[in-house]
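Re: that backbone. Tokens:
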């Protein structure tokens, strides 16, 4: 296919005084700057970090937990009355102890198994018999806590956090793609404004030549003064057009700089090559890839899955449930530390409890019906999203086909307008055309130049839109893999 292009435009604009150096920015540089400064992207990154750390924390909580509780001083003194001897006696107790605990959650059953070891030393003094008892003690026991007849809360919590993190990753990738589209639009707005100023300056130069020609003719008596008056009007209009274009350009630059996060007082100009090679778009491929890869669909699916998990929790309200607690331990004490388990005391314990709902006035059933409505709504949203994606991709493909045709038409119109202007400029120089008529041809040429440039940029923007809609880049025939954004994120985290 024939390559259609517009010459590269890179213009350095200078104020009347003094001359200020300008920074030339490409589209790639603009995207990089915006990626570093975008508040929405930064917010998305913070949310991504939050979900990642929450998931890491929950996974860490499923590993063995070790703890040591130390009670270095525990002293008490109390008085008691002995009825038999009719006297008061003082009792003193002093002990120091610690408890070492290993706790292991059981993901498979949502239970918890624990190993506890309480150890220490104690001293008891009784004023009544003048005896002090000193001994070491150690309590060692294993316990199991297990919920019965209910859902696995641990697995559900981890799954919810995984979905939350995945959703945050998808949101971040979508923010990146949205940023690319918006930055490109602002960038090309500045490009067109630069081009418009260039065209207006060309108009001014041509109008100045026309004015000089008619002025010489009037002075030589070869043309009427009315022609000079009209030429002066045309010249003033051209100067006004240049100033208006310059103001529009500066406003477009300010909007562009504001969006990508640059200082609005920075002097910039943009540079790009708007060369366009229209390509054939496989509409079926774009549609299939979009439905298979669009992150919005996965987000909708996550919403459905989350709603289903919520249903599990709702159904657990006021349900028949139970819990079982098992404990087996050994307790020993002795004046000698090595003999604390010479004659240990066994301490088994078993407890089972049940929660039996009797009547809740229909609360549980009502909440279930409400959650069912939520799930149906989420499923409907998923279906509607799929349909909307189909409609959007089909429309973009049609737009690209139309824009490809418009490029050819715009190019032909520009070429014809240039030829028309050149012919009529010669007629004007020969005195066969008025300055007013020539100005009309000049305006027409300017409009066609802008129309051609706009058609090229419209095609590039719509091609970018197709890339975002289908997550497939037809310019390089490669899918857009959001994973690259995540790799960048992980790399930044390491740095």
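Recovered sequence:
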């Amino acid at each position: 296919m024939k390559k259609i292009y517009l010459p590269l435009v890179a213009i350095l604009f200078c104020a009347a005084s003094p001359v200020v150096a300008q920074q030339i920015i490409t589209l790639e540089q603009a995207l990089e700057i915006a990626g570093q400064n975008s508040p929405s992207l930064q917010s998305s990154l913070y949310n991504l970090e939050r979900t990642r750390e929450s998931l890491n924390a929950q996974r860490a909580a499923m590993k063995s937990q070790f703890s040591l509780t130390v009670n270095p001083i525990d002293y008490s003194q109390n008085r008691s009355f002995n009825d038999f001897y009719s006297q008061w006696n003082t009792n003193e107790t002093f002990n120091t102890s610690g408890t070492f605990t290993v706790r292991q959650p059981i993901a498979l059953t949502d239970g918890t198994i624990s190993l506890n070891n309480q150890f220490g030393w104690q001293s008891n003094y009784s004023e009544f018999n003048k005896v002090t008892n000193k001994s070491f003690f150690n309590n060692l026991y294993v316990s199991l806590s297990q919920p019965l007849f209910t859902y696995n809360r641990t697995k559900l919590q981890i799954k919810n956090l995984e979905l939350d993190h995945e959703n945050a990753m998808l949101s971040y990738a979508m923010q990146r793609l949205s940023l690319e589209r918006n930055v490109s639009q602002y960038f090309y707005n500045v490009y067109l404004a630069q081009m418009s100023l260039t065209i207006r300056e060309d108009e001014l130069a041509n109008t100045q030549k026309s004015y000089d020609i008619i002025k010489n003719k009037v002075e030589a008596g070869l043309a009427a003064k009315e022609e000079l008056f009209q030429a002066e009007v045309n010249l003033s209009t051209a100067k006004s057009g240049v100033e208006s274009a310059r103001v529009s350009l500066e406003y477009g630059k300010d909007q562009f700089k504001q969006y990508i996060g640059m200082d609005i007082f920075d002097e910039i100009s943009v540079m790009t090559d708007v060369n366009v090679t229209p390509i054939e778009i496989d509409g079926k491929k774009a549609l299939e890839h979009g439905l298979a890869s669009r992150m919005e669909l996965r987000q909708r699916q996550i919403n459905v899955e989350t709603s289903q998990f919520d249903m599990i929790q709702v159904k657990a309200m006021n349900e028949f449930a139970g819990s079982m607690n098992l404990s087996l331990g050994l307790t020993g004490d002795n004046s000698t530390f090595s003999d604390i388990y010479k004659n240990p005391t066994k301490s088994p314990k078993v407890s089972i409890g049940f929660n039996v709902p009797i009547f809740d006035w229909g609360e549980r059933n009502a909440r279930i019906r409400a959650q069912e409505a939520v799930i149906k709504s989420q499923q409907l949203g998923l279906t509607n999203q799929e349909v909307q994606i189909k409609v959007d991709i089909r429309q973009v493909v049609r737009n690209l086909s139309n824009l490809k045709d418009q490029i050819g038409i715009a190019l032909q119109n520009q070429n014809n307008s240039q030829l028309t202007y050149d012919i009529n400029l010669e007629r004007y120089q020969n005195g066969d055309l008025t300055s007013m008529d020539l100005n009309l041809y000049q305006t027409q040429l300017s409009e066609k130049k802008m129309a051609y440039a706009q058609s090229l940029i419209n095609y590039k923007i719509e091609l970018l839109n197709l890339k975002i809609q289908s997550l497939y880049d037809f310019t390089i025939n490669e899918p857009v893999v959001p994973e690259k954004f995540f790799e960048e994120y992980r790399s930044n985290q390491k740095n």
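The chain has two domains: 23-55+156-307+371-494, 68-106+111-150+320-356. The domain at 23-55+156-307+371-494 is CATH 1.20.1600.10 (Outer membrane efflux proteins (OEP)).
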